[in-house]
Amino acid sequence: MYEDLKSSLLFCLSFPLYRWPSLMKYYNQADNVNWLEEYKERHKAGLEARRIVASFSKRFFSEHVPCDGFSDIETLGCPSHFFEDELMSILNMEGGKGLTWKYYAKKILYFLRQQNILKKLKAYLQRPPDEQSCLEGAVLVDQYCNPLLDICLETVQAQVDDIAAKVRKYLKSKNARHPSVTSKAGEALIISQVELQRQVLDAMNYVLYEQLKYKGNEVDYYNSLNSYIRQVLIHRTGIPISLSVLYLTIARQLGVQLEPVNFPSHFLLRWCQGTKGSTNIFDYVYIDAFGKGKQLTVKECEYLIGHHVTEEFYGVATAKEVLQRMVGNLLNIGKRESTDQSYQLLRDSLDLYLAMYPDNVQHLMLQARLYFHLGIWPEKVLDILQHIQALDPSQHGAVGYLVQHTLEHIERRKEEAGPDVKLHSEEKHKDICYSVGMIMKHKRYGYNCVIYGWDPSCMMGHEWIRNMNVHSLPHGAHQPFYNVLVEDGSCRYAAQENLEHNMEPYEIPHPDIGRYFTEFAGTHYVANTELEIRYPEDLELTHATVQKIYEKKE
Pfam families from the entry (predicted)? Predict the structure, then answer.
């Protein structure tokens, strides 16, 4: 008994070193931590996390976004960092098993981290303007839109510091006595002489654009990755505003106080050539970080966008306005995206925009309409609509329409019957050739996919049938149709005659795979409990079919 107790104590003392490397940042080495109590708390949090994850599939299988479940998580009775650590251990399970657990663990972790980042953003916005850095704002945007990635300000700052060090090295080769070279680490440096500032900018342009090959992404301009500062540093490409934030940050570290300019269609920086704080727009040179640091006059700025603009557009932008512009770009990209059925980027960018401007009626209405369209957060939709009505009573027509239909949605959800069960053995389903979990190939378009549902005939409306030219198929709409998850991340509805078995099956990299399947078995996917309830005969049929196929192949 004594040996068992001794072993347990030794385990608890060593536990944080090998099991909690990601959690050690929450502890101060000088603190006298009771590791046994911490272990108990961590164990308790782990059990709670697994209980919640296990419940999600049953409770929210029919919902793309498990909103009500998130409400449960907001009132956790355990430390959130322990809860997150257990979610990470689920996500890091090896192999193609536990897919449903991983799917919901990812959803929960996404939500938890976003809530924490939103708190940081609101604290950032409360600071005085001179304490808000554009780089930190850009990192917060990146973190919120990519909460599952390891993005932190310190790491990004270290990468920026490394570029600044390269600029100093090059500058030293040109002017060994330059203040940017001789200044001590951590010293706040402001260079006042324009010629010395010019030397810094010339050195920056050489290092950034010639040595490190940074450039504006003209080929894939509207890719959201161009707006994420971490991706800009990795791929060395971006759009005007993200490259400007990088350029501005490096310049300021080297003593040149450039300022952001919210220029229409093309974000710029300005460099004062006259009296500091001058309101004369002709006292500035304008810098295009997207165009390899090219220095522009007022007239050249207008040539850049192809039309004349008033003087107000040459003024300095605050860090909050820079953040608004970045989020606005992501909002526009989110509206363009069509493959993501959950409109995740649009939802994320709306959250960020409304964190900055919580009373903006236009964006509140967009958020309400989006949630209504997706059929998610109905109770939250009502709260948003109530807020809109209080802010702008003239919106009562649109608000009333959405309130009525949202209340109807809530009532329908209460009255929903059990799941629709489909059996191959029923006479009306005799023409169904394939089953849930089979990995298929589209004969016409060549994409690979996995079946997660089927109908004995096309169940889409007349407009969809007409638009998809279904009547041109030999068997038209009167043949089985299959719901499939496609390798490009889309969900499609395919006619039976267009599908065939994939003779060389592999895992389908679709974000919703875990919503329907618990395991990739090498030749097919195994339906999870909720999908099996809806297609109770498919699991056995899929297993038998793939066995026959591969026996013939051998």
Answer: Transglut_core2 (PF13369), YccV-like (PF08755)
